[in-house]
């Protein structure tokens, strides 16, 4: 049994003979329908690939949830991610929040003044901040700052076989790498959103009251009239979905990174682009759903005064 | 009595009819391999012939498209995530570029499998880490360094220490000497031999280094790239003790052993000419 392939020990022509250069052939006749069929096949392939990718992503998400609920990750894998997502993102989110509050005041002031409704600015600025801009902006900053770095980090680990090494040493990479990142984004993005909201409100107040000279009492009276707890809840509730989307997209991109520096770069870019698209998509869907819930609960809700 | 003999006869690792296909490209075709406990096996072959893929199927990192891989008679495909993780603690895997975790120090890297198992005190872990470092000939100072601060040869030895820390039953070496200077190559070869001498371990070494193939193993298996084979030819072109490598009359084995380009250069020229005519 030593030589399983005894037949091969004799001289045999090697199958890898010099390839004969193919004779130049005439282009095969193509019917008028063929380009159309090619076009159709191209689309078909794209649709199939998209469905396969969505299925793969869902499976990845499902496995993350299974690991999340069966075995809690170790604390030493959690803290660095919580620090990265929470503490390190705080300054940049606070800064962008402040600016967006001021920008809102700048952009809407003149329109409202023409109508003599400057004091309504408080309602407009604060409503848009807590419902939309705060959560979306915090999520965008998180996707840019943390999402791409996660994708690049996990992508590098994939390329240098560190993810394989984790599996080979009896650690499940999803439990070890994905679950902590998911938890960090999931649990901390509401806090970051609150920070963005707060700083935006402060920035809007500063510009409206201090610079534009709007009466502070009416500014806040109008805000209190329109912005209710449900609006704040909507913003924070949506942010949880954004955070989950960022973590899952970034980790998925990192785990399915192709080889080389180019692959890692592409994973980082793709993670931001897909996260951002998904954030806006979820924002739309959740906006519609949450509004529907609100009007079912409070049918008299949509009033001006 | 008979059962215990059968037990001993049962191979540690068995590969039954394994084929692996990535997308449209087939890498392995109907591979049959039975590795008894304690054997040191070298898998030889040129780049791209599927050696590393074969090795990764042995530990379940690559799932075969067809066929099965058995560890002590147990099919890896039948195990769930947790059982597979438990089983993998009985393996040591030395990766091609060491695959050390860059975010951890050397000590944390080597201690990783122990932490994973989770039944050792930190004093015991420290003791074991230092002992393994000494075994691969590294000074104790390196434990506080990060992988990026070490040379390639040192990183490989750290990777070896990490694979050995659990005293595994099976050690898989993925190109352990690639990219090392001749002296470090010999050091690694000696370390592999010494590891086997110290404890009865089953080793699989994937390499294209002839020095390793001649000196280290009990048995050599050579794979050939599928793209260069006809559909009905077996992919394993040699299976025997290292001494028989030089007597083998198969042209493909001889070419590899002696390091001859053969017709490859002409093929490359021919393909480059044909791309010119296409108009690249």
What are its keywords?
heterodimer; A: 305 residues; mainly alpha; 77% helix; disordered N terminus; B: 280 residues; alpha/beta; Rossmann fold; 6-stranded mixed beta sheet; 4-stranded antiparallel beta sheet; 39% helix
If you had to describe this structure to a student in words, what would you say it looks like?
Chain A is an all-alpha fold. In chain A, 77% of the residues lie in helices and 0% in strands. Chain A is globular. The model of chain A is unreliable at 1-21 (pLDDT under 50). Chain B is α/β, with parallel strands linked by helices and 280 residues long. Chain B has a domain at 37-61 and 78-90 and 168-278: Rossmann fold. Chain B has ten helices and ten strands. Chain B has helices spanning 2-9, 51-58, 81-88, 106-117, 122-135, 152-164, 182-198, 210-215, 251-258, 264-278, and strands spanning 13-22, 25-35, 40-44, 66-71, 74-75, 91-94, 170-174, 202-207, 219-223, 236-240. In chain B, helix 4 runs parallel beside helix 6. The radius of gyration of chain B is 20 Å and the shape is globular. The termini of chain B are far apart. Chain A binds chain B through residues 2-5, 8-12, 14-19, 21-22, 80, 156-157, 160-162, 164-165, 167-172, and chain B through 32, 56, 59-61, 81, 85-86, 88-89, 91, 93, 95-97, 99-103, 112-113, 116-117, 162, 228-230, 233-234, 236-241, 244, 248-252, 262-263, 266-267, 270-271, 273-274.
């Amino acid at each position: 049994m030593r030589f399983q392939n005894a037949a091969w020990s004799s001289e045999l022509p090697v199958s890898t003979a010099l390839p004969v250069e193919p004779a130049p052939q005439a282009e095969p006749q193509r019917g008028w329908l063929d380009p159309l069929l090619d076009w159709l096949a191209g689309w078909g392939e794209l649709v199939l690939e998209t469905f396969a990718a969505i299925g793969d992503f869902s499976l990845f998400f499902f496995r993350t949830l299974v690991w999340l609920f069966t075995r809690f990750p170790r604390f030493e894998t959690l803290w660095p991610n919580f620090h990265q997502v929470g503490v390190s993102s705080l300054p940049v989110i606070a800064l962008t929040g402040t600016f967006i509050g001021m920008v809102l005041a700048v952009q809407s002031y003149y329109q409202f003044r023409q109508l003599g409704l400057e004091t309504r600015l408080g309602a407009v600025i604060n409503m848009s901040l807590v419902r939309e801009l705060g959560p979306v902006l915090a999520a965008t900053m998180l996707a840019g700052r943390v999402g791409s770095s996660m994708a690049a980090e996990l992508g590098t680990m994939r390329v240098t076989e560190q993810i394989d090494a984790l599996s080979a040493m009896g650690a499940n990479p999803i439990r070890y790498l994905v679950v902590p990142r998911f938890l960090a984004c999931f649990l901390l993005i509401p806090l970051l959103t609150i920070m963005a909201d707060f700083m935006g409100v402060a920035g809007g107040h500063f510009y409206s009251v201090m610079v534009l000279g709007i009466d502070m009492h009416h500014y806040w009276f109008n805000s209190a009239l329109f912005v209710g707890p449900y609006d704040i809840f909507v913003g924070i509730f949506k942010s949880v979905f954004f955070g989950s989307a960022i973590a899952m997209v970034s980790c998925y991109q990192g785990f399915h990174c192709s080889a080389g520096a180019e692959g890692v770069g592409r994973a980082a870019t793709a993670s931001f682009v897909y996260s951002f698209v998904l954030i806006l998509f979820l924002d739309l869907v959740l906006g519609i759903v949450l509004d529907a819930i609100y009007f079912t609960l409070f049918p008299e809700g949509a009033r001006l005064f | 009595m008979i059962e215990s003999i059968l037990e001993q006869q049962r191979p540690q690792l068995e590969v039954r009819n394994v084929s692996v296909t990535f997308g449209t490209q087939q890498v392995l075709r109907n591979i049959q391999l039975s590795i008894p406990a304690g054997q040191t096996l070298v898998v030889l072959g040129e780049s791209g012939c599927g050696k590393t893929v074969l090795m990764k199927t042995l530990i379940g990192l690559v799932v075969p498209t067809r066929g099965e891989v058995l560890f002590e008679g147990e099919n890896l495909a039948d195990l769930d995530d947790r059982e597979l993780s438990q089983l993998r603690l009985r393996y040591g895997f030395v990766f091609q570029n060491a695959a050390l975790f860059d975010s951890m120090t050397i000590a944390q890297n080597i201690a990783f499998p122990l932490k994973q198992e989770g039944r050792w005190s930190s004093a015991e872990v420290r003791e074991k880490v230092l002992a393994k470092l000494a075994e691969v000939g590294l000074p104790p100072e390196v434990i506080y360094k990060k992988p990026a601060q070490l040379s390639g040869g040192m990183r490989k030895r750290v990777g070896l220490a990490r694979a050995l820390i659990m005293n595994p039953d099976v050690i898989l070496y993925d190109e352990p000497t690639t990219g090392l200077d001749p002296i470090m190559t010999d050091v690694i070869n000696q370390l592999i031999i010494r590891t086997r001498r110290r404890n009865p371990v089953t080793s699989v070494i994937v390499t294209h280094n002839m020095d390793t193939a001649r000196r280290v193993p009990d048995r050599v298996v050579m794979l050939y790239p599928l793209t260069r084979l006809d559909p009905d030819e077996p992919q394993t072109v040699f299976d025997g003790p290292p001494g028989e490598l030089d007597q083998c009359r198969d042209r493909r084995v001889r070419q590899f052993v002696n390091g001859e380009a053969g017709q490859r250069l002409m093929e490359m020229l021919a393909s480059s000419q044909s791309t010119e005519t296409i108009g690249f």
